[in-house]
Amino acid sequence: MKIGIITFYNGNINHGGMLQAYALQKTIENLGYDCEQICLDNRITEKLSFKDKVKLVFKLKFGVFNLIKRKLYDRKINKKLFSIKQRQSEAFLEFQNLIPHTKKIYKAEEINELNDIFDEFVCGSDQVWTPYSGGIRPVPHKWNYYLEFTNKRKISYAASFGADVLPKQFEEEAVKRINNLDAISVREANAKKLISNKIHKNIQIVLDPVLLIEPDEWMKIVKKPVEEKYMLAYILGNSNQSRIISQDASNLMKEKLITIPFIGDYNELDFKFGDIQKIDISPKEFLGYIKYSDFVITDSFHCVVFSILFEKRFVVLKRNLDKEKKAMNSRLTDLLSLVGLDDRIVDNTSSRNIQEILNRPIDYSSVLKKIEEEKIKSLEWLQNNL
Fold first, then answer.
1. Do 215-372 and 2-46+94-212+375-385 fall under one CATH topology?
2. Taking Cα atoms as reference points, which of 272, 233, 234, 262 lies closest to residue 250?
3. Where does 2-46+94-212+375-385 sit in CATH, by number?
4. Which of 26, 91, 279, 316 is the most buried (most CB within 10 A)?
5. E strands along 103-201, which residues?
6. Which residues contact 168 (CB under 8 A, 6 or more apart)?
7. For residue 31, how many other CB atoms are within 10 A of its CB?
8. Does residue 330 contact residue 165 with C-beta atoms inside 8 Å?
9. Model pTM greater than 0.70?
10. Cβ-count burial of 311 within 10 angstroms (0-12 exposed, 13-18 middle, 19+ buried)?
């Protein structure tokens, strides 16, 4: 039997996103199935209507002025980012090619061809059900992440909305498609809460697939950095304060600070804070910088997951988010609560508080025992539903 996975894979330059794609394919393969990631063409080709352009202007905090300012800013940074993105894309492409995937990149109108190739489909993990990707502009394949294109067996594994509230119209459309899945699993308790009273099937909460791979297996692809004795900061949110106190904390800990800027959401401060900025690194190198760090400061879910797997001392900074997207914090609190590490998450206000937490040891024998218990349940669910 051949299984196709739909997640954020083709063209993805997010380290966590690519590593979860690797992990789910590897896990299903380890269960004895022929399995591939499906490459989707995610380019946006539809143009905004006049009505949507007006909506976009009013959506911006400072209206037209802010839009013009942003356009000028984009032109300024595009030259700087182009070569960086090109190098990073090459690094990600090398890693992407480690993962079995379809040779063809499927456009939305070609998606039905997949029914001739695969016997079963899985959507997930990650925020494949997000209502917010792309803002106003139409999102290619949005409903294909719910596997609406097939009548073959189809399940979700660790799917997430990445939101605490769903827009009413979106919710109705999403629920209709989720009800058509043969088996449903989600990554967060909040995702289950959002739809449980509208879905007529059992909804299982499972681990993110990166936690289904043993640390020893991850070590086989880790690329060790040349740097030694450092603190790692990986900040995805747009808070300058998070970056400032990360720098302050490294000074207090007397550690060199290595940062990994996320160029998918450009923040100019990313190129100014830290002693060394590692910009165009591959997922293998990303794992290496976590594994061989002395300490980790992050607001990234997957960076926290790998910090746990590699038994690092870490601190989690809350992101400054609007109400619609605050679930980016809740998925972290869900994970930390599960393993009894709630005390590692802090508001980004005090570097001395961070210093105190980083100096506090973690009982990883207890943490990894809890993960192993949940891992057994997650693998059992996946095996029983494939």
1. yes
2. 233
3. 3.40.50
4. 316
5. 120-123, 153-156, 184-186
6. none
7. 14
8. no
9. yes
10. middle
Return the number of other C-beta atoms located less than 10 Å from residue 139's C-beta: 16
The pLDDT assigned to 62 comes to 46
The Cα–Cα gap between 222 and 310 comes to 11
For 124-258, where are the alpha helices, taking DSSP H only? Answer: 168-178, 189-195, 215-219, 240-252
So where are the chain's domains? 2-46+94-212+375-385, 215-372
User: Buried b / exposed e across 266-288, counting CB within 10 Å, b at 16+?
Assistant: bbebbbebbeebbbbbbbbbbbb
| Residue pointed to by tokens 């899985």 | 122
In the chain, the amino acid numbered 92 is F
Give residue 60's pLDDT. Answer: 46
Q: What are phi and psi of 296, to 5 degrees?
A: -130, 135
Contact 361, 202 (CB under 8 A): no
Radius of gyration of the CA atoms of the chain, in A: 21
Q: What is the token pair recorded at 74? A: 């984009």
Helical pair 283-291 and 301-309, crossing angle rounded to 10 deg: 60
What is the rounded CA–CA span in Å between residue 385 and residue 379? 10
* Spans of the chain, pLDDT less than 50: 46, 48, 56, 60-73, 134-138, 322-325, 327
Q: Which residues contact 305 (CB under 8 A, 6 or more apart)?
A: 16, 208, 210, 211, 335
Q: What pLDDT is recorded for position 265?
A: 66
